[in-house]
Amino acid sequence: MASLPAPTLAAEPVGAAKPILAWVGFCQGYPAECAVNAAEPARIAMTPAIWNTIQTVNRRVNATVTPVTDMDHLGVPDRWDLAEDGSGDCEDFQLLKRSLLARAGLPRRAMRMTVVIDEKGEGHAVLTLITDRGDLVLDNKTSQILPWHRTGYTFIKRESQDAVAWVSLGGVTSPVTTANR
After folding, report:
1. Most CB atoms within 10 A, among 30, 43, 51, 96?
2. Which domain holds residue 141?
3. pLDDT-based confidence at 24, cuts 50/70/90?
């Protein structure tokens, strides 16, 4: 059984933010994937079994989904979906991970899509898990799950835990899309 991650800091929202347009389209097509149930726990209570499930899903999705931009794959600049055909870009990996983890019993409310600026200065999407050990990031660029502040990314915004909306994480700029692999 894998040892638990060390306790770390939480990323604190600093106000409202506009959603990514492609997220709005995704929510229209998959409303259950975007619903916020305030009765669910706001944090994942980390146990060795839950940590093992998170690591397994993260590695499996990263190994089985082929990275491709939405333009190359679908002929559009940015579209969010669940990588159901085995291909997708960054947000498609994360949406699939979230869906699989929710099916495994983790509270969707504690798994938030997050927009960052990556190491290349480009828009990128990751999945932030809000846990009792701090905020952890699942990323298709690595199978290592890191505390948010150790990723090297600038955190811009994420889905709200309290409504079908987005909150700012204090980043200076906001990408229009997250369409990078």
Report:
1. 96
2. 16-168
3. very high
Indicate whether 136 belongs to any domain: yes
The tens digit of pLDDT for each residue in 157-177 reads 999 888 778 988 886 655 444
Percent residues over pLDDT 90 in the chain: 74
Cβ-in-10-Å burial (0-12, 13-18, 19+) of 137 comes to buried
Predicted local confidence at residue 44, as pLDDT: 97
Q: Does residue 106 belong to any structural domain of this protein?
A: yes
Two tokens, residue 166: 């987005």
Split into its structural domains, the chain has a count of 1
Domain-embedded: residue 25: yes
